[in-house]
Amino acid sequence: MFKSISFNRRGVIAAVAASMILASCGSSNEDVVAPANLDGAVEKANLTLGFIKLTDMAPLAIAKEKGFFAEEGLNVTLEPQANWKVLLDGVIGGQLDGAHMLAGQPIAATIGYGTKADLIAPLSLDLNGNAITVSNKVWEMIKDDLPQENGKPKHPISASALKPVVASFEEQGKPFKMGMVFPVSTHNYELRYWLAAGGLNPGFYTPGDVGGLVDADVQLSVTPPPQMPATLEAGTIEGYCVGEPWNQAAVFKKIGVPVITDHQIWNDNPEKVFGLREDFAEKNPATTAAVLRAIIKAQKWLDEDGGKNRPEAVEILARPNYVGADAEVIAASMTGKFTFEPGDTRDAPGFNIFFDKYAGYPFYSDAIWYLTQMRRWGQIAEDQTDEWYVQQAKSIYRPDLYLAAANSLAEEGVIAASDIPETDGFKGEQSGFIDGIIFDGSQPNAYLAKFKIGLQKGQTVTAAGVK
């Protein structure tokens, strides 16, 4: 494990960004990411952090309600945001000091897709937590043809089941539409990944375009998470990919059926991050470290002792100032179960992971996966070298800042040293994808070449199609 480090007093530390030691781009674990230096006092005690009403904002709510922010000398206000664009603008403009963010948001902002700003992600908030839901109409069209196991649909369900539905819509002269929450969201890339793995093209982006409809078999559009069920019920879309509790809400309202969870698309995939401006972290290193310490404590609380605290977390999240959904709906996925339809509730102990499996560590390879999907679908318009992917990942994901906070907690005995990975920032080869393709973050271009649907080397997109 990492060497122990000293600091002035408990709960007051500084993470000096300039001291970061970047690891090599391999995945051998011969080199490890070093923590930033520690020293100093909190520079800014009063903070405003943003979030979207999803259960994976739980680490922020728990850090507030269980007093972890206060223990670090912070007075934190948590403010729900109307949508991901408003949240992003709030962080960039300084109205928010940091936020529960889509992993793709600090990445896209830094490379200049959609907007340009220097944002960083010093902590990953969770693994898994999303699902794909289809309307009752679509479910009735596909369910009888699905393979069965013990009298229930066999999972994971392939998007190939939608092919005849899409063809039926096309024959009627209607596009088949599905929703996701933001163009650079995990949900967009997971939905696209699932569709493409089933032989359906989710469309490509042209430069400056946020629609991504070129050559699309399935048209994807943006809907804020809390509005997903109502949009589905109105018939505007025939399905969506979103985080909880908005898939379970469709089940409880009897307007839709979840067909696959994201950990069935990519097992233990990284989800949200805690994002903030790079200059905020540089000007307020002790404050940044204090925030990370509080969030790490909350992540541990959420996962400790087999999830014994999850019922209390559900009660907290159900409050109107947080997620504001019925506790029963939140508990349906937050406490180790997931309901696909009435009578089909299955064990899902890993549906939300906040601390276990090094969930909080911001791996470079996670950032690189998002970058590969941006390139796959045209959001990155041209080919890039492997070195470019690594360089971008290292400028955005900041494990040195995470380690400064985590190692101090380990030294205090708040978390175990074994809870902190010894790594160069790369996970190595990863399996667990629905299409069986192996991902190695140190070889992004070789990974992109494996996909049958997606941009290949040398290809670009125009309104007329891929060339």
UniProtKB/TrEMBL annotation:
Keyword Oxidoreductase: no
GO CC terms in record: endomembrane system
Keywords: Cell inner membrane, Cell membrane, Membrane, Signal, Transport
Coiled coil location: none
Signal sequence bounds: 1-29
Subcellular location: Endomembrane system
Pfam families: NMT1_2
Main location: membrane
InterPro entries: NrtA/CpmA_ABC-bd_dom (IPR044527)
Protein name, UniProt field: ABC transporter substrate-binding protein
